[in-house]
Amino acid sequence: MIPRYLVDVQLDGLPVIEKDVIVIGAGIAGLFTAIRASEHNSVLMITKKSLLDSNTRYAQGGIAAVISDEDSPAYHRQDTLIAGAGLCSNEAVEVLVHEGPKGVRSLIQMGTQFDLENGEFALTKEGAHSQRRILHANGDATGFEIVRALSENAVANPKIEVWDDHFVIDLVTQDGECCGAIVQKPGGQRLFVKGKATILCSGGAGQLYRYTTNPDVATGDGIAMAYRAGAYIRDVEFVQFHPTALCYPGAPRFLISEAVRGEGAVLRNIKGERFMERYHEQLELAPRDVVARAIVSEMEETKSTFVYIDITHESAEMVKHRFPTIYEYCLRYGLDLTSDWIPVAPAMHYMMGGVKTDLNGETNIKRLFACGEVSSTGVHGANRLASNSLSEAIVFGRRIVKRINDLPPLDVEPSLQFESERMTAPIQAVVERRLKLQKIMVRYAGLRRDAKGLAKGLEELKRQLPIYQSILTEREEYEFANLLTCALLTSEAALRREESRGAHYREDFPARDDLMWRRHSVLHRLHGLTEERIEDV
């Protein structure tokens, strides 16, 4: 079993820092929530790298909200529910589609500059959206613009203290209530940060897979520490692979946004044939999981490691204006988006599941909240609709802050209980172990899964369990322990779900089975894996 704490420390031996609100992570969820919370609270924001290192920064497409007169919350709701393949929470989706526009206005007040056309917001359409409702910034650098505006805001705010290069090891709980966290400073010293509310905004677990569009920091820390603390972890078998990441020697897996296909790009196999009509009537704009599996099938059939995305039939001016970041990035590697077909392949992109919360972002542990990709609010179901992630972070960030403002001060004196003393030496060769774990996940718990492979993957992952009895001291060791936790949870939930739905595809159960499986997978450290039926509306 995974132990309650990753390290053995005596709380009374640690220096204590007290703040009203502790925010762990610095993407859009962390920044936005910290800024809103600072209106009535002192806030400490902890990030293991820096304010500019998060998944948000790489979000190209944009943020989905009902802005246009032709659009309506009912349309946005329907698109989200269809993409979510029967697993969305109706209430959470209602909250998202009705409160999204307010959230966008808050971002604008905080200094975000979205692209305009003739004085109106320039709205685009992405896969599986029925209307144009995606706001973007600088063409395809939306995330970067939001992070720029919010981090300038946060840094200038006297009520927000930012700790860069600090690692949160564990959440401290007492009698079902979260009291704060154990944090390691850059030099290795540890301290106890105490607060009336702790908000996990630590992003997803993209580093579970060898090929990912996520930054190196996405190691599932928040999900793993919440699991150890006794939070419910829901639907982590649903991992979204982005169909089109740049696949070129020497280049990182850089995202070639869905919006490129939204603006007319087509996919071709290495023989130059357009192939999506063989897989789905929506062609290149089919849901992401369909497009990603179609690409893998074509790669297998043509014995190739990539397919091409081709937008060369559009005018060079349009392509450069609409996708300046992607255009510039490809040029670095000698690829010209306006005249070349660009080699792409699927890469892990987003985790639909996470720490289960209610509609105010609160977990089953009092005073512990989760926001953004680390959370499972019920909005995304089995497959996230493009550009709903940024809106979700803002909408639920606002709700979390409202709830926190009503919380009484913390009056608990926590103490730590250790199951057993750690005996073994620190772990060796973390880099190799991490690569091995990523290869296991790609091979057995990737885009296409089956019982035999998942069972084999779990068996191989379990050989790494002794790490939890080792003395861990370095950030890389904590990250590996957290990745291993997430890998075990994802594989276990994927093995249990004997159907195909959304981003979870089982070759041995290729059909969706609503009678048996229209339910959530819920994992808990003490109760194991249980299921939660969906109440029909």
TrEMBL record:
Q: Where is the Fumarate reductase/succinate dehydrogenase flavoprotein-like C-terminal domain?
A: 434-524
Gene Ontology terms for molecular function:
L-aspartate oxidase activity; steroid dehydrogenase activity, acting on the CH-CH group of donors
Q: What does this protein do?
A: Catalyzes the oxidation of L-aspartate to iminoaspartate.
Q: Where in the cell is it found?
A: Cytoplasm
Query: What GO CC annotations are associated with the protein?
Result: cytoplasm
Record Gene3D superfamilies: FAD/NAD(P)-binding domain, Fumarate reductase/succinate dehydrogenase flavoprotein-like, C-terminal domain, Succinate dehydrogenase/fumarate reductase flavoprotein, catalytic domain
Q: Which NCBIfam families match?
A: nadB (TIGR00551), PRK07512.1 (NF005701)
Q: Which SUPFAM superfamilies match?
A: FAD/NAD(P)-binding domain, Succinate dehydrogenase/fumarate reductase flavoprotein C-terminal domain, Succinate dehydrogenase/fumarate reductase flavoprotein, catalytic domain
Catalytically driven reaction(s) = L-aspartate + O2 = iminosuccinate + H2O2
Protein EC: 1.4.3.16
One Pfam family in the UniProt entry: FAD_binding_2
Keyword terms, alphabetized: FAD, Flavoprotein, Oxidoreductase, Pyridine nucleotide biosynthesis
Q: Which organism is it from?
A: Paenibacillus arenilitoris
| Active-site residue numbers | R288 (proton acceptor)
Q: What is this protein called?
A: L-aspartate oxidase
